[in-house]
């Protein structure tokens, strides 16, 4: 897939490019991370109620999306179906196409879609998902024929006082490998991750403030993808 050839469609919600920087640490520090944000001079406050996020990741038969991330391709993208709440079986949400160009990321979201993951095999479910898409998302769903991973985690949302900086905290992660399963695997998690993922997000013009925030944060930054790390850990070796 060549990202430079992707054009937005009329019914696609587009978010502008933004900085996205991730940090990780052990889950035992969860309370400390919350406390650090609440006491920060930027005046961070919870901007949205905490909730559980569920994702289904699709890839090509050759794992092109995974490979692009592993080699650190300067332009790359991945597609997921995202929904919220405790119900892992009823995927009522949106498709999200996430991409990265150099240090900045972008995201495009589809119209709502629905998929009952208990109602059939992957061979039956993927055409049902494809039938609900059009344009850009229809092309991607038609090309990504391999269900790879379902994961879920808790997320807390923080914003600075002027809403220019956003920070999310993800924890209580679980992943369900799908490659070796003809039907959706919702009952046998591959492993539980005792890791926190902290992500700082800001629009492109806030580079200096992002840099200052990261300098003061007591964690090290680095590349991190839940899809990549969970997939590599879950797949048979």
Describe the protein's architecture and organization.
By secondary structure, this protein is α+β, with helices and mostly antiparallel strands. The protein has a single domain, classed as VTC, catalytic tunnel domain (mRNA Triphosphatase Cet1, Chain A), CATH 3.20.100.30. Helices cover 23% and strands 43% of the residues. The chain has helices spanning 30-38, 64-70, 122-131, 135-143, 207-216, 226-234, and strands spanning 13-26, 45-59, 75-84, 90-101, 104-116, 146-159, 165-177, 191-193, 195-203. It has an 8-stranded antiparallel beta barrel with strand order 1-5-4-3-2-6-7-9, surrounded by 6 helices. A hairpin with a 5-residue loop joins strand 3 (75-84) and strand 4 (90-101). Helix 3 (122-131) packs antiparallel against helix 4. The longest helix is centred in the middle third of the chain and has 10 residues, at 122-131. The protein is globular.
Question: Strands of the largest sheet, in order across it?
Answer: 1-5-4-3-2-6-7-9
- CATH architectural arrangement: Alpha-Beta Barrel
Characterize the largest beta sheet: strand count, sense, and whether it forms a barrel: 8 strands, antiparallel, barrel
Order of helices and strands: EHEHEEEHHEEEEHH
- Point out poorly predicted stretches: 1-15
The N- to C-terminal Cα distance equals 26 Å
Mean pLDDT: 85
Structural class: alpha+beta
Taken from the alpha-carbon principal axes, the silhouette is: globular
CATH superfamily membership: VTC, catalytic tunnel domain
Q: How many individual β-strands? A: 9
Cα gyration radius (Å) = 18 Å
Helix segment count?
Answer: 6
């Amino acid at each position: 897939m060549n990202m430079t050839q992707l054009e937005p469609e009329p019914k696609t919600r587009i978010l502008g490019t933004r900085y996205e920087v991730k940090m990780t640490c052990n889950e035992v520090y969860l309370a400390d991370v919350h406390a650090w944000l609440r006491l920060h001079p930027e005046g961070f406050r919870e901007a949205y109620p905490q909730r559980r996020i569920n994702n289904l990741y699709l890839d090509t038969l050759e794992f092109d999306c995974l490979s692009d991330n592993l080699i650190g391709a300067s332009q790359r993208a991945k597609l997921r179906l995202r929904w919220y709440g405790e119900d892992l079986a009823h995927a009522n949400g949106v498709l999200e196409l996430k991409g990265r160009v150099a240090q900045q990321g972008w995201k495009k979201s589809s119209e709502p879609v629905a998929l009952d993951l208990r109602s059939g095999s992957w061979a039956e479910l993927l055409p049902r998902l494809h039938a609900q898409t059009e344009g850009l998302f229809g092309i991607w769903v038609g090309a990504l024929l391999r269900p790879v991973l379902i994961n879920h985690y808790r997320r807390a949302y923080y914003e600075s006082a002027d809403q220019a900086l956003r920070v999310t905290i993800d924890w209580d992660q679980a992943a369900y490998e799908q490659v070796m399963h003809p039907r959706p695997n919702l009952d046998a998690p591959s492993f539980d991750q005792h890791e926190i993922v902290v992500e700082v997000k800001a629009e492109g013009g806030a580079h200096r403030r992002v840099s200052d925030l990261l300098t003061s944060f007591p964690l090290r930054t680095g590349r991190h993808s839940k899809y990549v790390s969970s997939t590599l850990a879950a797949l048979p070796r």
